[in-house]
């Protein structure tokens, strides 16, 4: 049986980012049930960096990640992690209320109000039914594959171990920590990090920890080719969240932005979702969605209150949650991984997050205990 300081369950963006920062503190093992790292949600993300996106906690974690994305640590990558993209939120004339609410949520961030001329100068395929736009110029595209690879390289450089095709079949609580049975092996560690995404509650049950009530939800996406597509286009999002699309490697990536509850699984795209996004693209633009080059689905996992969960479980502080990213996992990865590693190592909230007003209360799983209030700071 191999022994570590930390075992991280989950080889997606949460587990790899946390493992990367933990490998600076001690000996780390990351376990992934699939043969490929980032196979589920992390490898199926639209991957943009927007400091105005999400709730207050997500915005803090995103802002705290900005410096990492713009200037990665030495040896992390030889390629830029981010590139200019911008987001254009669009509205029909019957969506004035939805656009008004969106403008309210964007207060405090830089944006421009666009009319038809400005919108069609940047995205000529928009139909005349699209009459108003809100352009957010500071949104960046993220190279998610390179971000994942950088965390993997750094973890291994710090002598961390990664085992793929290693599904967890059992977890025993011991006096000194945890014994984890996985694949064809068994490993032990003093601290266990649950970064298992849609399988987070299942891992908790194996460890004898009460589940949080995490809810995985399916999101479907397609890519297709069209002669009009330009890489200079911003990401385009319907202000009512009915669709989004963006240039992607010479094609267009599009999604109906669906959130359909699902059990944890290797989720596959539904024909209805594919037909829905094709119809919505053709309604909003002059493009015809012909041959679909690829279609896939991923599970975005939500905590009961919709906000991320990071921190020790109240029943055993050696069990650390890092779950419920709700689709924000890529853009918060640097700060989220740093926070999870700090809490797993018995430290407090990192200074960069304290400066943004973050407390442990807002991410702690203690908030789900009926009638209790966390004293953590």
Helix proportion range? 10-25%
In the CATH hierarchy, the architecture of the largest domain is 3-Layer(bba) Sandwich
Structural class by sheet pairing and helices: alpha+beta
CATH topology grouping of the largest domain = FAD/NAD(P)-binding domain
CATH homology group of the largest domain: FAD/NAD(P)-binding domain
Overall CATH class of the largest domain = Alpha Beta
Low-confidence stretches: 373-377
Tell me, rounded to a whole number, the average pLDDT: 94
**Globular, elongated, flat, extended or rod-shaped: what is the shape?**
globular
Q: H/E element string?
A: EHEEHEEHEHEEHEEEEHEEEEEHEEEHH
State which percent range the strand residues make up. 25-35%
List the helices and strands and how they pair.
Blueprint: E1 2-9, H1 13-22, E2 28-31, E3 48-49, H2 56-70, E4 82-84, E5 87-92, H3 96-105, E6 112-114, H4 116-122, E7 130-136, E8 140-142, H5 144-157, E9 161-163, E10 168-174, E11 177-182, E12 185-194, H6 200-206, E13 215-224, E14 235-238, E15 244-248, E16 251-255, E17 260-261, H7 271-284, E18 292-302, E19 309-313, E20 316-323, H8 333-344, H9 351-354
Parallel strand pairs: 1-2, 1-12, 2-9, 5-14, 12-20
Antiparallel strand pairs: 3-8, 4-8, 5-7, 6-7, 10-11, 11-12, 13-16, 13-17, 13-18, 14-15, 15-16, 19-20
Task: Provide structural commentary.
With 377 residues, this protein is an alpha+beta fold. It has two domains: 2-74 and 143-212 and 305-368, FAD/NAD(P)-binding domain (3-Layer(bba) Sandwich), CATH 3.50.50; 87-137 and 215-302, D-Amino Acid Oxidase, Chain A, domain 2. It is 25% helix and 30% strand. It is built from nine helices and 20 strands. Strand 11 (177-182) and strand 12 (185-194) form a beta hairpin. Helix 1 packs across helix 8 (333-344). The longest helix has 15 residues, at 56-70. The radius of gyration is 21 Å and the shape is globular. Mean pLDDT is 94; it is low at 373-377.
